[in-house]
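Handout, section 4.2: multi-component inputs.
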Amino acid sequence: MSNNKKKIVIIGATSAIAEHCARLWVKDDVIDLTLVGRDSEKTERVAADLRVRSPQSAVCVLEADFIDPLAIQQLVDKIVAEAPVHTVLIAHGSLPDQAACQQDLTTCHEALTVNGISPVLFAEAFVSHMQKANQGTLAIIGSVAGDRGRKSNYVYGAAKGLVTRYAQGLQHRLANTGVKVVLIKPGPTDTPMTAHLKQQGGLANVEDVAQLIVKAINQGTPVTYAPAKWALIMMIIRHLPRFIFNKLDI
Amino acid sequence: MVLSDRNQVIQQLKSSRSGIAHGMGRSYGDVCLNPDGVLWQTTSLDRFISFDEITGRLVCEAGMRLRDIQRLMIPRGWILPVTPGTQLVTVGGAIANDVHGKNHHVLGSFGDHIHRIRLVRTDGEIIECDPQVKPDWFAATVGGLGLTGVITEAEIQLRRVAGPWLDAETVPYNNLDEFFHLADTSEADWEHTVSWIDCISGGGRGIFMRGNPANTGLCPEPKNRKLTMPFVPPISLVNSLSLKPFNMAYFNLKKWQAGRSPAHYESFFYPLDNLMEWNRMYGPKGFFQYQSVVPREVGRDAVQAMLAEIARSGEGSFLAVLKTFGNRQAVGMMSFPQPGVTLALDFPNKGDRTLKLLERLDSIVRGAGGRIYLAKDARMPRDLFKAGYPRLAEFLQYRDPGISSAMSRRLIGY
Ligand SMILES: Cc1cc2nc3c(=O)[nH]c(=O)nc-3n(C[C@H](O)[C@H](O)[C@H](O)COP(=O)(O)OP(=O)(O)OC[C@H]3O[C@@H](n4cnc5c(N)ncnc54)[C@H](O)[C@@H]3O)c2cc1C
Ligand SMILES: NC(=O)c1ccc[n+]([C@@H]2O[C@H](COP(=O)([O-])OP(=O)(O)OC[C@H]3O[C@@H](n4cnc5c(N)ncnc54)[C@H](OP(=O)(O)O)[C@@H]3O)[C@@H](O)[C@H]2O)c1
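Output:
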């Protein structure tokens, strides 16, 4: 299926943040959108919504294994074979219970895999195609949690730190090519992932975060904090001397 | 508790303590509140499910905001037939209060345009109802104040529209007789009618506004645009009660020479939506809303009596809206709209003084055989509730025992 619509692929398309990015994309343009999720029925519901929003856009759904490297490679090859990809957004992730990760290695392993290894494998599979074509934008959602390990969520943070370091390396590798790598680090955002934190307040609006992501992708910005204030907050956190940092209950 | 996956709602409700659905929380009273209980937040149930471009039937999740429907569909030639004075409400909330707009005399209330509702009960049962299938459940749920279950999706009939513009006209009136004359003579030719009424002078003067969808299509701005916002309520012109806002608005309008002009649908229908948190200006104690409807036969006298009561109290309602409802019965057992005239008021909360005034208004409404709008109530006495909503006993058979709100405990006892 080859046409001249911009082709965008979302990995983890049921993510609330990604879904809102997709809404913005179909609002602005008629696109060719591929939604990849682990549960096709749930992903289909996102697709149905987007089809109502943009009847002219082509929206298709693919169910995927997010863990198996071979399956990831095959899926990505198949997607790219159909038409060259303009933009990829890798969005999946899950916020584990830190205490559970400390008690149970299986939980810990899962958290590291889904938040760290899996997104990197998807990125790696796409990026080799993009490099060959010498075009395209690859966006990955990391997190402010990846900036400095904290006792309240360092397993998740370590996986997101892996993504950060990976994106950095990729940007270095592709610096003189037509491929752009965009890393987004959201702060706490109001999505199903943080539903249990909603009472505490202070969560960013998911539409605002999506807006910043879409803008960063359009401009090919290497690193974006969303909302922007987190750039400053995390700079301070990263630079706090250890003797102070260790006294903080964060 | 956040509801975000419509297929998970059953599990969530089954495992939840007693709660109540909460949409955008735009109700002024306590219908969507539940101190010490659970609020089932629906705004993440915001997906479209399908739209038929030929019939105009839209299926969507219940947390969808009316604004999102309008902004997507109006450029495509479809519009929600009925919307309230704010578009920042959800489909579920609009059904549960069977909300009305300025076109009640032509198109009734929100529930008149619903083809189907999917309702999830706290015991896990799913009830699909429409005006033909399980019509009793449908009639209980439209205007059902969230008490019959949680609506997860609905099918809504949209209506053809040429574009976002209306032909609007403003006409000042000097007393209630003139108002009723304007209302009667406008009903046949104007789809939308409403008026702002001056509560300070007690004389019953006001500004009558009417509008029809314009045929100008999607063109950016109709030509010879004199005034695109003739419907901005007096409230926007002031930031202090002492300014006698109505007078300012009134005389400004006079100055502009009230008359016909094109208006954009957002400023025509939802003038307050751009004034985020406008209600803050009432100060920390907030304010009371008071909206009643009284039968047409006694309407003039009842409204006159209420205006006199307000003028006498010196409380002066800031935003007073007077409008006639058409001669039609609503779908819902507990729906607010009924044939007659509706007066919506708001008063800064001055404690006992304000409550006393509202009690005097209650007795006028009671005497006239009217009712008070639950979406805007936090204080009406039970006897007035029972008298105003004669189908209460019938409605209670459809209540979900796992659902309770501040309003249901206050007025129904559980
Ligand atoms: C500026 C302004 C102007 C207004 N103008 C008008 C007007 O012109 N006409 C009019 O009729 N009203 C008007 N209203 C009132 C408003 O339209 C209603 O209160 C409306 O119901 C609010 O919808 P919501 O989504 O905020 O629901 P909420 O206020 O959160 O809830 C309202 C009721 O709906 C129930 N509910 C919400 N979602 C669901 C669901 N999914 N399933 C079951 N029950 C549910 C709640 O339990 C509650 O009983 C106005 C309000 C404001 C603030
Ligand atoms: N929300 C925040 O506060 C926040 C802050 C910083 C970073 N982030 C990051 O932002 C991204 C999007 O998150 P969100 O906030 O939009 O959360 P969300 O709505 O909960 O979405 C999470 C997504 O990850 C998928 N997923 C979860 N576990 C998975 C697994 N084991 N295997 C495969 N897919 C899995 C989910 O798929 P299903 O729908 O099938 O479950 C869903 O698509 C994530 O990378 C997250 O880490 C979020």
